[in-house]
Amino acid sequence: GLSGRFIITALPTIYHCKDGEFRRYQGARTKADFINFISEKEWKSIEPVSSWFGPSSFLMSSTSALFQLSMWIRHCHGYLTEHVGIPVWGSYAVFALATLFSGLILGLIMVFLADCICPSKRHRAPQYPHSRKLAPESAQLLKKLDEEQEADEEDISDDETESQEVPDKDSSPHTVRQRPVHPAAAVDKS
């Protein structure tokens, strides 16, 4: 984990740390050079590591966690092959299945969160299919159809109130109600 925080890829890697600033030493590796680096304050001539790559930054903490995870996987592999007696290919199969299973779980969680944050269209309120820019004739026709539908609903509610007030003795449950024709709708289309 520590090597992940400082991006240590070769040994020895030497850092000078003072007042929360980290400087990577890249000079000679003799005792006299180390003493001069500190006593003569040569470290001031080296630019500190940027905040992105500082050991306490989020990026380096994540890299450290990745290094620790890889070490944990290595220990688990050693335990499975040496103590449990699983062959090497069996240990790889266990890790492959664990990776697939964890990927499925994480994928389901991501889909659930995405559906909660941005619900799909079927959960949204239905929009009128012709709500975009319509030609004036189409807009008038749609308005006329809406008015006729409202008039039909009013007629039906009026008929229901009349049938509740005065029951018709001649009506049967199988009679068909005829809709009155409006004069505007009866215009000859030829």
Structural notes for this entry:
The protein has 190 residues and is mainly α. Among the domains are: 1-56, Glutaredoxin (3-Layer(aba) Sandwich); 58-117. It has 5 helices and 2 strands. A two-stranded antiparallel ribbon has the order 1-2. Strand 1 (14-18) and strand 2 form a beta hairpin. The mean pLDDT is 75.
How does the SSE layout of this entry go?
Elements: H1 2-6, E1 14-18, E2 21-25, H2 31-39, H3 58-84, H4 88-117, H5 136-165
Antiparallel strand pairs: 1-2
Label the overall shape: elongated
Q: Helicity level, as a percent range? A: 40-55%
Q: Beta-strand percentage?
A: 5-15%
How many strands? Answer: 2
Q: What's the story with the biggest beta sheet?
A: 2 strands, antiparallel
Count of helix runs:
5
Structural class assignment: mainly alpha
Spatial extent as radius of gyration? 40 Å
Low-confidence stretches: none
Q: How far apart are the termini?
A: 85 Å
Secondary-structure element series: HEEHHHH
Average pLDDT works out at 75
For the largest sheet, list the strands in their spatial order. Answer: 1-2
